């Protein structure tokens, strides 16, 4: 198991699994909480699996340190509530500061993605000549 900050290591046991790129877990969690409202950690992890068609699987050792970091940054808050299975669980909610961070992270991701796409989007080498 390789260490990466906030556990960006995914449960990549087979060829159809993938690691999250550094920095994307915060973006994904903030987006989920913004779209769906308060959720407990297990529900966040399952939603990541669902949206990614099980390509991304976040384990507890990955997710909870990231949630703690986001809480310390003021991007999310937590509150103990009763889950749908009638158990006590910590539910996480996005804050106003979290929405600002989500907008920043989204913009950063879109800029980086479009930059990478310039290198991958065409079959031309960097000199502009067609590559076979």
Describe the structure.
The protein has helices spanning 24-36, 41-51, 60-73, 96-120; strands at 39-40, 76-82, 88-94. The longest helix is centred in the last third of the chain and has 25 residues, at 96-120. Mean pLDDT is 83; it is low at 1-12. 48% of the residues lie in helices and 12% in strands. α1 packs across α4. The relative contact order is 0.15. The protein is elongated, with a radius of gyration of 17 Å. The chain has 4 helices and 3 strands; from the N terminus they run αβααββα. With 132 residues, it is α+β, with helices and mostly antiparallel strands. Strands 1-3-2 form a 3-stranded antiparallel beta sheet. The protein has a single domain (5-120), classed as Orthogonal Bundle (Arc Repressor Mutant, subunit A).
């Amino acid at each position: 198991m390789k260490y990466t900050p906030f556990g960006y290591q995914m449960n990549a046991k087979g060829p159809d699994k993938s690691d999250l790129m550094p920095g994307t877990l915060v973006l994904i969690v903030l987006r989920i909480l913004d779209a769906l409202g308060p959720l407990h950690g297990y529900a966040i992890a399952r939603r990541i699996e669902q949206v990614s068609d099980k390509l991304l699987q976040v384990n507890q050792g990955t997710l909870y340190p990231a949630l703690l970091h986001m809480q310390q940054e003021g991007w999310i808050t937590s509150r103990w509530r009763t889950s749908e299975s009638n158990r006590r669980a910590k539910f996480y909610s996005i804050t106003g500061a979290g929405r600002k961070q989500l907008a920043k992270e989204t913009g950063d991701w879109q800029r980086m993605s479009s930059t990478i796409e310039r290198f991958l989007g065409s079959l031309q080498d960097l000199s502009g000549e067609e590559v076979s």
